[in-house]
Amino acid sequence: MGPFMGNNSQGFSQRTPIQLQSAPPSLAGLDMTRRVRRKKYERKLVRLQDRLREVSLAYRAQHRRAVIVFEGWDAAGKGGAIRRMAWPLDPRGLKVWPIAAPTPEEQGQHYLYRFWKRLPRPGQMVIFDRSWYGRVLVERVEGFAAKAEWRRAYDEINEFERMLDDDGIRLVKLFFHITPEEQLARFRQRLSDPLKRWKLSAEDLRNRSRWSEYEAAIKEMFRKTSTVPQPWTAVPANDKKYARLAAMRAVVERLGKAVDTAPPGLEPEFEEKACKILDVEPSG
Q1: How far is residue 105's CA from residue 251's CA, in Å, rounded to a whole number?
Q2: What pLDDT does residue 126 have?
Q3: 271 pLDDT more than 90
Q4: Is residue 283 part of a domain?
Q5: Starting at the edge strand that comes first in sequence, how are the strands of the sheet with 125-129 ordered?
Q6: pLDDT digits over 82-124, tens only?
Q7: Can you say whether the dihedral through the CA atoms of 60, 65, 67, 68 is positive or negative?
Q8: What is the domain count for the chain?
């Protein structure tokens, strides 16, 4: 087991301290009025999906790995954004993990265990719909984790993410933010729509009643885990179309940075043989 799997983080002090962002994201600093018109949204969405497809194919060809974390308020639009990211991608190179309550087996393990076993294979991207940050969000606010447990989790998470980085896994962390008024409107819409009613749960209503406590937990999460190598991106999500574009743009920029996304070529000998068999002219 890695050093994070124990009951304390004493081993972390032997490594270079992780540098936190001097100005982490702030929910109060987001412009929640951002909107995008449908025609403009559709044009930009297609371009970003094409670019994401190029990045995904490059990762598969070059055996790279990536993790994309989605966190945010209930009804913030994470699922819709994930679907639009997944649509243009080869399913062999993408895995989406919806994270719910731990199984009985997982309850007997360190909370990071179930994420370790879901990390991407070479050439694969993995999306976590909620993540290890549950320890410092819902588990903290709802009392599922003791104070000592969620307080030490900040260091554990930072070290876990550094281990991912050291192992060559690129990480994108997205937080979808909506206002209480927008969440209320979406909850009411779900309740009145038979096709969406299943999305509304008792947990959603319970969490809403503790909005200020979640805000405090999110603020501290940003402050203590938005690091220079693994920063948070806060997404204004009152407008779903704007949020989808912003999230996809952040993913493309971070995963595509310093990555050659040109289509891989064929070995000259194989190409010559294939062209001869298939009776076509060589591309060169």
Answers
A1: 32
A2: 98
A3: no
A4: no
A5: 94-98, 125-129, 65-72, 169-177, 232-236
A6: 999 999 999 999 999 999 989 988 988 999 999 999 999 999 9
A7: negative
A8: 1
Residue 169 lies in a domain: yes
Q: At 220, which CATH number?
A: 3.40.50.300
Tell me the residue range of the domain where 271 lies.
3-278
pLDDT at 54 (0 to 100) = 96
The rounded distance, in Å, linking the Cα atoms of 74 and 146 is 23
CB-side neighbour CA atoms (13 Å) of 32: 14
Q: How far apart are CA 235 and CA 35, in angstroms?
A: 12
**284 within a domain of the structure (yes/no):** no
